[in-house]
Amino acid sequence: METSLTSYLTFKLGDETFAANVSKVIEILEIPKITRVPRSPDFMRGVVNLRGNVLSVVDSRIKFGLPVTEDTVNTCIIVMNISLEGQDITLGLIVDAVKEVRNIATDSIQPLPEIGSKFDAKFIEGMVKDDNQFIMLLNVAALFSAQEADILSHVSETVEQVN
Amino acid sequence: MVILIAITSAVSLFIGLYGVNNLKTVNDGMTTMYYDRVLPLKQLKAVSDAYAINIVDATHKVRNGNISWSEAIRSYETAAKEVEENLNAYAASKIEGEEVRVFNEAKNLKSKSDEAVNQMLDLLRQGQDTATRHKLEAFIVNEMYPNIDPFTSKISELIELQLGYAKTLNEYGDVLYADTRVITYGITFVGIVLAGVVAFFITKSIIGELGGEPSEIKLIAEEIANGNLTLKFDTQRKRVGIYGAIVQLSEQLKTIIAKIMEGAEGVTSASLQMSSTSQQMSQGSQEQAASAEEISSSMEQMVSNIQQNTDNAQQTEKIAIKAADDIKEGNSAVTQAVDSLKKIAEKIGIIGEIARQTNLLALNAAVEAARAGEHGKGFAVVAAEVRKLAERSQVAAEEINALSSSSVTIADKSGRLLEQIVPNIQNTAKLVQEIAASSTEQNSGATQINNAIQQFNQVIQQNAAGAEEIASSSEELSAQAESLKDSVSFFKLDDEHEKSVHKTKKKQAVNRPAFKSAAVHSNGKKNGIALDMGHDTKDTDFEKY
After folding, report:
1. Confidence of residue B389 (pLDDT cuts 50, 70, 90)
2. B369 touches chain A (CB under 8 A)
3. For a disulfide at B474, which of A23, B78, B275, B517, Cβ 3.0-4.6 Å?
4. SS3 for B344-375, per residue?
């Protein structure tokens, strides 16, 4: 089998390092002013203005079931483009810190152990050993249910219409 | 005895008074004899003579023609005058008894006589003629003589009376003499007897008082007067009166002289001892004076040391004040440094922010490059390098930040320490100031001590002079004692008393060299007198270290 390299953007969430496929990443932002949207789900922090477009921002800590902490200077928003239920949604994912873009060989990706994982296995594609720790490869699309995807897209659209 | 003497005296007094009284009586009689008898006799005789010579004789001469009539007249007048004067004087004298009667008769007869004389005078004045002469002769024979004679005979009677009185007085004097002689002889005899008795008793009493023969007592007294006290007295004999007293005097004198000699010896030795002691004292005082001088010079040294201390303390104070000021300056410099460091930290924060943003940009570039796939590979490498640089810048900025913040902490700490040091140094300056003040006080105290020592020294020297004076005085005293001994040696004592005096002499002779040697010993020493403090139990309370 031919070894192929895929570029991943690694970022920190708590103590763990995650990686997202670069093809899904549009850009990385510093935390701007976030506008809260009423009656939105808990994991949704609000919306931000991204060069005139409305971007829904999701707090990945809540989504990942980690305790909520204050933002630091390293806290960033990773703007991603995901396809959910056949529609492309652009959303921002708040992470503790962005690390680097690195290439990961596909054969080095290992499956997630069935038992003992503290994260929901459905949005972890696999794990890569890096030095003395593991990088978990994140399936961003699997983070959200169809209903949540609706809300996200709807929010963006609604805000867009208002604007 | 007293009664006897009184009686004897009374007898003598009686004899004297009796004799004087009788003499007075005799004297009174003599006075009466003279004034009342002899003078009247003279006056009566003058009267009688005046009649006999100036009248009767003149009358005869006139009859015979022996004198002129005028001479007769003068004679008559003289007689009349004389008779008148003497009779008046007689009348003034004491006239008594028979005499009064006779005198009165004489006065009666005198008037007739005077008349006859006056008639005679009248006849005489008529002139010297024959008729008158006849008449005169007739008158003289017939008138004059019969008239004059009774008067003159009365005068003669008065004279006789006077003589009789005088004789009576004389006889009375004889009787008085005889009585007085008898009485005086008798009483004088009684007085002699009494005086004999008195003399006997007085002599007996005096002998009793003397207690011995006066010659013996005189001999003893002369021996004592010549200083011979070696007389032996009969111990069996009763010592009474002046003899007893003189014997006692001799014995007491012996004892007293012996004691005086002993005392003089004692004074001599004591004065010698005193002399040596006072010389010792004088020397001690001189040594004290030397010590005081040493103390004084030490004190002066101390004073200069204290002065130096004062100067040093003042210098130190100045230095401390300057140090405090410098430290304040240093502290402000540290504050400035802290400010600068804070500013640096701020700037570094900016750099860190820039680095972080650069990192972010690089990441974005890397994302872009990765999305570009094969075409973006070169760019991806650059972006990765830029990101690495940015990351390093960020790390360096963080390190600088940490360093500057630790520097700030250190600077703060040093600033605080310096701030703490300032009051300490100020305290030090104050303390040093106090030290300087104390040193000044010490200086004045030391000066006072020095003055006191000088006074002390003067007193010591006065003491030394006084001791020397005492030494000379005691030598004088010794000489006086020797002179006293010489004076007393006039008395010769018996062996027993002499022995006792010699005994004390020997005792003192033994003692005297000891004082001298002690004096020499102390003279030989140079550094004061060694004091033997003894070993009393108090010393054992102290421990030696």
Report:
1. very high
2. yes
3. B275
4. HHHHHHHHHHHHHHHHHHHHHHHHHHHHHHHH
pLDDT digits (tens, 9 = 90+) for B485-539: 888 888 887 766 666 666 555 554 444 443 433 333 444 334 444 445 555 555 5
- Rounded to an integer, the average pLDDT of B328-339 is 88
> Is the Cβ of B363 closer than 8 Å to some Cβ of chain A?
yes
From the candidates B364, B385, B388, B392, which should be mutated to test the interface with A, based on the most A CB atoms within 10 A?
B364
Q: What is the dihedral of CA B240, B246, B248, B252, to 10 degrees?
A: 170
Name the residue facing A7 among B356, B364, B370 (closest C-beta): B370
Q: Which amino acid is at B314?
A: Q
Handedness of CA B516, B517, B520, B521 (dihedral sign): negative
Q: Say whether B356 and A73 touch across the interface (CB within 8 A).
A: yes
Please, which pLDDT band fits residue B320 given cuts at 50, 70 and 90?
confident
One-letter identity of residue B79: A
**Cα separation of B337 and B404, whole Å?**
11
Q: Where are the domains of chain B?
A: 2-208, 243-521
The alpha carbon of B544 is separated from its chain's Cα centroid by a whole number of angstroms, namely: 62
What is the structure's pLDDT at B460?
A: 86
- The answer to whether the CB atoms of A76 and B357 lie below 8 A apart is no
Which residues are CB-contacts of B499 (< 8 A; sequence separation ≥ 6)? none
Mean pLDDT (whole number) for B234-255: 84
Residues of B in contact with A28 (CB under 8 A): 360, 363-364, 367
Chain A contact for B367 (CB, 8 A cutoff): yes
CB contacts, 8 Å: B353 with chain A: 73
CB contact under 8 A, A100 and B371: no
**Shortest alpha-carbon distance between residue B381 and chain A (Å):** 10
Residue B524 is predicted with a pLDDT of 39
pLDDT at residue number A9: 92
Q: Tens of pLDDT along A90-132?
A: 889 999 999 888 888 888 888 877 665 555 667 788 889 888 8
Query: Is the Cβ pair B367, A25 closer than 8 Å?
Result: yes
- Among A7, A30, A101, whose Cβ lies nearest the Cβ of B360? A30
Locate all alpha helices (DSSP H) within A33-92, ordered by sequence: 60-63
A32: CATH: 2.40.50.180
Is beta strand A124-130 parallel, antiparallel or unpaired with respect to A109-110? antiparallel
CATH classification code of B243-521: 1.10.287.950
Binned at pLDDT 50, 70 and 90, residue A43 comes out as confident
CB contact under 8 A, B364 and A28: yes
Task: State mean pLDDT over B120-139.
Answer: 80
In angstroms, rounded to a whole number, what is the distance separating the alpha carbons of residues B11 and B364?
Answer: 190
Looking at residue B97, its amino acid is G
**Chain B residue with minimum CA distance to A97:** B360
ipTM, two decimals, is: 0.85
Q: What range does the domain containing A21 cover?
A: 5-162
- Smallest CA–CA distance, residue A162 to chain B, in Å, is 30
Residue A114 exposed, middle or buried by CB count within 10 Å (0-12, 13-18, 19+)? exposed
Instruction: Tell which residue, B354, B272, B52, B33, has the closest CA to residue B173.
Output: B33
What mean pLDDT value characterizes chain A? 83
Domains contained in chain A, number: 1
